[in-house]
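sorry for the late reply, my laptop died twice this morning and i had to redo everyting from scratch. anyway the thing you sent over, i finally got around to it. pasting the sequence first so we're on the same page, its 261 residues, then the predicted structure underneath. double check i copied it right bc i was rushing
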Amino acid sequence: MTQRRKLPGSRQHTSFGTQEDDEDPTFTQPSTSQVQRGLEKFTPAQVDQKTAEVVQYFLVKDQKKVPVRRADLVKHVVKDYRNIYPEIMKKATRTFDQVFGLKLVEIDTKYHVYILVNKLETAEEASGINSPTNPKTGLLFVILSVIFMKGGVVRETLIWNTLKKLRVDAGVKHEEFGDVKRLVTDEFVRQRYLEYVRIPHTEPAEHEFHWGQRADLEVSKAKILEFMGQLHDQEPQSWTQQYREAHSDPDSTQASTSSQR
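ok and here's the structure:
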């Protein structure tokens, strides 16, 4: 996680498809003058209504932790209001902040991908991931813990072997999780908790896991160290490198926020 390696020729597997498909050649960010002219065509009530639709779209996606692409947002929700897109996003960001206690975060500034983060919780406070209360979240927490303790990147074989010791076999349908491999390599990746990257020049193909952008924002590394300390009956400080990373300035690893992109 401190150094997330982007290997030559590798490509993250996500349900969005390839990154080339994520671009939207039909949409150009409107200038300030274009926004001002665009606002003259709509009443304040119309702008508020469209903002409400954008907010609803994000909230529905967030229920399943699905990131939102700007291309999809413009195509399916903003539509004819695209000339005032920055104004709508500014209003939506304010609504998330003041009404829902959420922060709109742009986790990918190149392809313009957004998620919502609970701004009421600090990195050191327990959240749904840091204190897992359901089996699926618990499974994700175990995987993230393994990746963190191994320096931020692990081969998938290590993950499958670790889960097998917990009686969760990637090759066998699980009573609670169903298709385990699909859950880990598709759902968790699509939600941006994990990155699943092919290792170049491996035949048959091998992959490795990294923390995803949502995990960087939502998961407390300090909580993971506390968990590992309890598990192994050791002080968290005994893992020097991980302890240093867990207690470094969180602002240095935060994804950039944007209400105008």
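The radius of gyration is 20 Å.
thats about all i looked at so far, will dig more tmrw
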